[in-house]
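User: quick one, fold this
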Amino acid sequence: MALTFGTAYYPDHWPESDWARDLDRMAAAGVTMVRFGEFSWSWYEPGPGQFNFDAFDRFVAAVEERKLQLCLCTPTATPPPWFDRLYPDGRLLDMHGRRCLSHRHFWCWNHSASWAQAAATITRLAVQYRDRPCLWGWQIDNEPNYAEQNHLADPERMYDHNPYAREAWIEWLRGKYGDSLDELNRAWWTNFWSQRYGTWDDLLVPRGRTNPHTWLDWMRWREANLAEFVARQHELLRRLCPEKLIGCNIPETGAPLSLAIGQDYWAQAAGLDWVGTDLYQATGDRTRDLARHAYSTDLLRSAAKASGAAFYVSETQAGPHERHWPNPFAPEGFGPDYLRDCTQVFAARGAEQVWWFLWRPTLGGHEIGMNGLQALDGSDTPRTAEAGRLAREGKQLAALRTRFLRRPLAVVHYSRDSLRLASAFSGDAQSAEETLSGWHALLETAGYRIDFLNDDGLRNLGPETDALLVLPFTLVADDTLVASLSVHAGPVIAGPMTAGCNEHGHLHPTRLPPALARAWGVDYGLWRDTGPLPTAPGLPTLRGWRELLPHPGSVVRTRLSNGHPGVVSHRAASLCAIDLGRLMHDATPSQRKTLVQWVAKVGPRRTRARA
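Assistant:
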């Protein structure tokens, strides 16, 4: 198998006289896939039910003439202006009832009439092109989310508080709690601050983070609701085009933003034929940029793997921005060597296709001058030539994965519930992101390859595995997960917040659940993050630490400078008093070497990797 390449191209952005030249140059550069349509609804349906596919048909014919494949996209990311006229109550709303003014992903698809209108358009589009020889498959929407303008995860700017969404939220809660308000009140701890609900009519969408347990459920619902929107489109397309491949591009944006815009990677990936991720990372710090690409690729490949889907990098930055002003989004003016560096990272971590975004930078619009493989006028650049070389090396690039698979495996828990709960406490989601990405870098440096598991994957991992299991930020753990971990006989390294809360976000009365305390030979003491913080030789300054209380028979592997245990091990499990992921995030190169030695020292003997 060879790594293959595609690109995004928008014929509605360019004179029709440019199409043939641009498609010819794509073919010459080894591009085999053209992705199009996610932002073109008004091009072929300028008014409700008023379809005009003449230009669209000519573009599809031009793609077919060059024997290129076409991935068509459903257009729901950007409803046309006439949607507002037909459905004035259909936009996403914030907690103050303000309409979402984002440039895309601004619609509440719980609004049944507007969804019916969108489904009719998707149906018409699919019937128009499902029999065309070049149609390879479909992309659902584009980066499905709740208005990605929210970069601060500010509750006052988070969506969706639309009344139609509230109805769906209440229905979800009634299903979850068996139509019992008593169960809901217990889960949400509503006697605190006199928040107890007497009727379902009283429930509001959370207005801020005043109740972490309500917030946790709301964040769960938002992500489930968005994943259900993807599933509805998948069901529709599968019925209309049973032989075509159907997938979705899911950007890996980091924990804080992904929480704000409602993206559960595993939930959105469920049932798809292919899962893509959109990766943009070009800050000028090449080492950090490639490390971030490695983390994001492993994370989304793991979500794809869990659903049995093929994995692609469905967008990645094809070139620097062409503009006369600063732009903080992936701003480095990189050359062809960066395309090669990134492609090697993607290939080694399991990507089967890489799609450049985009073929030509646009001359106008919101993304003016961004990301083209070609120059503004459509002419070739050194990056075009490098893309062609990469395409010719597709088999060698795919072989990088085979070599990468020879590394020992580390399985890292990506606890979405823990991230959701952390987002109820201001900046803690960013801290958790540093923990996860730091552990990824630490394990990679120690010579491991990494798979991520969500909660369901961890529950089904089984009691025995030769892989090293790492729990960087498993703050929320229900009884089933605790039971699974307590009988897990394989090697485990757990972070200092592991199993601190139950599935509702309540603290455990014993700090560490008794079943885990017995299995791991240790109890929790207090969490310390004030006053003089202890140090550990050769490591960055600690931001906090956990008191660990070893049981008889447990081994204290390392100690902090104040004499307290740094790591306590019992059988194959090691519980850390300090957050090694955040330390790796903060570390200098020499300190990173020390951290790698820590992992080799405290990791169970049979899974040690060479430092």
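User: anything notable?
Assistant: The chain has 21 helices and 17 strands.
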